[in-house]
Amino acid sequence: MSITPITGQDTLQKFIFDNAAVRGEFIDISATWREVLSRHAYPAPVKKLLGEMVAAAALLSANLKFNGSIIMQIHGDGPVRLLVVECDAELHLRATAKIDPEAVIADDAKLPALLNAHGKGRFIITLDPADKMPGQQPYQGIVPLDGDDVGTVIENYMLRSEQLDTKLWLAADDNVSRGLLLQKLPYNGGKTEAAPLTEDEALETWNRAVILGSTLKEEELLSTTIDVLMQRLFWEETIRVFDPLHPAFHCTCTREKVGNMLKMLGRAEVDSVLEEQGHVGVNCDFCGQHYDYDKVDCAQLFATDAPVEALISAGEVKH
Predict the structure, then answer these.
(1) Taking a C-beta distance cutoff of 8 angstroms, is the pair 245, 93 a contact?
(2) I need a surface site. Which of 76, 84, 101, 153 has the fewest CB within 10 A?
(3) pTM of the full predicted structure?
(4) H or E element at residue 20
(5) Would the pLDDT of 201 be above 80?
(6) Is residue 139 a contact partner of residue 64, using CB atoms and an 8 Å limit?
(7) Which CATH number fits domain 11-249: 3.50.50.60, 3.40.50.2300, 1.20.120.450, 3.55.30.10?
């Protein structure tokens, strides 16, 4: 097995255990992560959580046979109100966090204190098709925030909602975001996507892969390239490696989408902002792009009968 990373590009590397029942993915999405951080200033514990979610969203998206976007959200009841990562079929990602402006966050704060302080935190995955049929709604799965870290929360979601045994090892800091995903392939009467196996053999292979993955430490994941990690962890295994994929930062906000958001707010709300400020300013929560609408712009918005499409995440309207 060999990986040839392209300098300057993020890399997602799929692989499968030959004659086994396990598939996996390594990801180094550090360049995309730095693009996210260049637009936001977050406390260190929030950076860690959001950076791990960025890696996890790309890892899950790469296994979906789905033309659309996966939106991963943690709605919190503590000082962090919301973490959001969106990833489309081309592995274009964007991410943002909402923090209580009055919150004081300790440097060693963990997920339960930040997002599940009163036990009301929720983890949500939404699959939003790119080309919806008339009346089609996005699929959404919502579960309690079950776990002390991002990887465990997602593992529990995948087992509960998708009936997929999944293991994740994630790490992120100010500069690096990396991860490893392992999934147990479905056993179906001795047949898997890889090769015929008995049920005991399939379970043995899965358990061995998880034991190998569990030797990976957070600092090692942060400091070691994915080609070295794969060799280090699975050098005794027969691994089939696929062509690498290359995630990248990309924000889908447009002036048209922001205009639709203003129409969703309604004429009365927009007029009240115009009366107070003389214009309506909207900042994209993901990339920070600013959109400005004067009285003429707003009049044109409400003069058309074109349908308004709901946005996954509206921007912040500046009053």
Answers:
(1) no
(2) 101
(3) 0.86
(4) none
(5) no
(6) no
(7) 3.55.30.10
